[in-house]
Amino acid sequence: xxxxxxxxxxxxxxxxxxxxxxxxxxxxxxxxxxxxxxxxxxxxxxxxxxxxxxxxxxxxxxxxxxxxxxxxxxxxxxxxxxxxxxxxxxxxxxxxxxxxxxxxxxxxxxxxxxxxxxxxxxxxx
Length: 125
Hints:
Order of helices and strands: HHH
Helix content: over 70%
Number of strands: 0
């Protein structure tokens, strides 16, 4: 029992120290040898379009995958609910609450992000 506590304490101290020491070593070696060579360029219109297209693709993919997963899960839960006994129906009702919350969050966040993207595109034109 005492050995287990000693090992756990040792590991906890090791991980705490590693959390503070490892980033220090990583930052000590500078990946840029000559900082004067770094010259950030300006963002061009072509870069903005590439970023907008990629963001729209990612948002669309997340919304599509989420919609497919939500509909599939709802279908499976609905079939199990119709076929299940009284006790199983009570359990499915309990499992539907987190499902509904997750589905609402998925649909609202993807919709809000799309609305914000459309507003900002119209504003900066």
